[in-house]
Write a structure and sequence with these properties.
DNA-binding; 3-stranded antiparallel sheet; homodimer; mainly alpha; 3 strands
Chain lengths: 148, 148
DNA sequence: CTTATATCGCTTAATATTAAGCGATTGAGG
DNA sequence: CCTCAATCGCTTAATATTAAGCGATATAAG
């Protein structure tokens, strides 16, 4: 059985994908310790962060922001709610929606840890010039935008 | 409590990171169905793929390639071994190492499904020109290369 | 109104994943 | 020959994650 030999353009695509995955993993693995140190999982941090900046959101919207499925969001929110960092409130306009609000404690926590996190992100991304960051962002957006 | 307002360069870094994560998620979520259809998890597919192209490897090396921890690799290999897609063999030179080989069935499976997978990757990456793919690859490599 | 379709949060079952630490093995330095 | 540190695969416990499907709600069409 002869081994599959990809064409040049397939090889390029495969190689690019590997580099994309490695970069994402590399960055998030360097950010992980800081988040775990604050006593949060990455998903929990993501939820607090998005509500802190975007304001109260329903669970589906949060799931789209932090790239997790709805079943998972339910558990993440459960755990945050147990620690009184967020609270649920069912929407009166559309009773299918459950809006998630930051509690005072949740706001205090994210307010405390976010600046350090942001500084770490900046340090990591400074491996690229600002123009390179913009170009990377553009390429990533172009790649992700395709409807699937 | 006033909300944290990041400087412009922090904002750029944060935005770039979000786009990177979204792109990676977008691509892999489009590839996932094809892999699951073949009866493999993404990690299992990754193991078969890397051994198929790189030849037999020890578990640690595989873990580095597919970005998973050693404990996880043990389970992934366990499951592949149960299905007789790979086999373990302890190295005689360094008895700490366990080298993973593709079985005939494993080779047949990856040989069968990889071309379709590769074609899908090419289709997805064709949202970018070849030059853009090379530039994306360069930026990702530069970002990931930093020793952590 | 009624039916059909879609959406949302949730539950369930199965699996994946991680961090932490352990025993066996290796190699280096005294 | 001995430690000693490092490496490798593995185990364990805890948690995360997913796919699939359910019930409640909303919306649109007839």
């Amino acid at each position: 059985m002869s081994k599959f030999t990809p064409t040049e353009c397939v090889r390029l695509a495969l190689g690019t994908l590997v580099k994309l995955a490695r970069a994402e993993e590399s960055v998030s693995s360097r950010l992980r310790p800081g988040i775990l140190n604050a006593g949060l999982t990455e998903s929990q941090f993501g939820v607090l962060e998005v509500i802190y900046f975007k304001g109260p959101l329903c669970q589906r919207a949060i799931g789209e922001k932090i790239l997790k499925t709805s079943g998972n969001i339910t558990m993440v929110i459960d755990n945050l709610e147990k620690r009184h960092l967020v609270r649920r409130e069912r929407s009166s306009e559309d009773r299918r929606h459950v809006t998630i609000y930051l509690t005072e404690q949740g706001e205090a926590l994210i307010h405390e840890i976010f600046p350090g996190h942001a500084a770490e992100v900046r340090n990591i991304m400074q491996a690229l010039t600002e123009d390179e960051q913009r170009e990377l962002g553009r390429l990533c957006r172009k790649l992700g935008k395709q409807e699937s």
